[in-house]
Amino acid sequence: MQSTTKTYNQSFLATVSLFFKHMAALTKMRLSLLVVFSADIAYLFALDTFSWQKLILISIAGYLITGASNAINQIYEKESDKLMDRTKSRPLPSNQMSVITATIIAGVFGVGGISLLAIYFNIFSGLLGALALISYAFIYTPFKKISPIAVFIGAIPGAMPLLIGWTAATNSIGLGGVLLFTIQFFWQIPHFWAIAWVLDDDYKKAGFSLLPSAEGRTRGAALQNIPYLVGLIIVSCLPYYLGLTGAISCIVLVLIGMFYLWKGVQLATDLSLKSAKQLMFASFIYLPIAFIALLIDKI
Question: Quick check: pTM over 0.85?
Answer without folding.
Answer: yes
